[in-house]
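Troubleshooting: if your tokenizer reports a length mismatch, compare your output against this known-good record of 388 residues.
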Amino acid sequence: MSEFNNQETASWDTNRVRRGEEMSRRGSREPERPHRRRRHKRFLSGWKYALFVGLTSVLLAGVGWLLVNDFCAFSKEDITATVQVTADDDLKSVANKLHDAGLIQYKWFFKFFGGLANANDKIGIGSYKLSTEMDYMALINAMHNSSGGMNTDTVRITIPEGYTVQQIIALLAKNGVNTEESLTEAAQTATFNYDFIDNTSQDISRLEGYLFPDTYDFYVNEKPESALRRLIANFTTKMDEDLMSEVEASGHSLKEIVTVASLIEKETAGNDQKTIASVIYNRLADTGSHGTYGMLQVDASLLYALPGHEGAITNDDKKVDSKYNLYKYAGLSPTPIANPGLASLKAALEPESTGYYFYALGKDGTHHFSATLQEHNSFINSDQYVGS
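Known-good structure output:
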């Protein structure tokens, strides 16, 4: 019995060794057992899942409607705003300006659409009057400038207060906006849709007073009428509703106010614009009691009729037969004689109330005002007068 058991044990050991050697040859791998497929649990199940899908659909539909509403300008508050596009702008900053003006609600969506619509090549520098009635494409088209887009080369120019139209044209030409000849032709013949500009005239003086002095971005080789129109548009922006209400209340036309402002601009660069305005209005109203008889006798207006004049004004100059010679003709000059800044425009609308009819520049750099001709002559015969 013991011997049999020993043989059986030896046989079992021999088989175990053989199986071990075979497993070693197979890389010591145990036979693979079939895997049972694991069942994945749904994150939400039943009515919760259906509710989630429903709410998500409603949310996406709501967001989509809001975007469509903004894109198509549906049901928007009635807003009109002026947006200024400069050479420093890109599509992102233009979207910001439209948003800040209340014209669009979703800046990112306008920028996305603008990229698809090549807005960088269509939107140009300038001042644009826009409204919430315009959809995205209408806004882009309204900011179109035929001279170039936001990627076109530009030049920045500051136009000084008191420059004449001819001086402005020369400055633009010098900086490469266009040629002096082309700009002059546009000033004479282009049609500008503003009721204060006489489109029947072919004299550049028709634009005098309305090319607002400021800092502008122009395209290199820009269309001449486009460049000039930008200056006129800025004038209408600066002459806002409040100032235009003052024009209406003044009893004077816009042309008369701008003409007075241009005389003020050329006569002084100091802080006495409103006092000089009072002298102009006092003289215009004088029927002879103060000896001026409506004669303004403004040197700057006479010089406007004498381009290229050098040196002091002579008595012969004062005899020149020109409507701009306010020594010879009473009242205002036929047109403004320069392009005034905002301070002079406000002075023309808000003159001081004085009894002055005369003024003269002293050696101290200030104007000295007089109520009578005797006081005036006394000053100009003194050693304080700049001309003495």
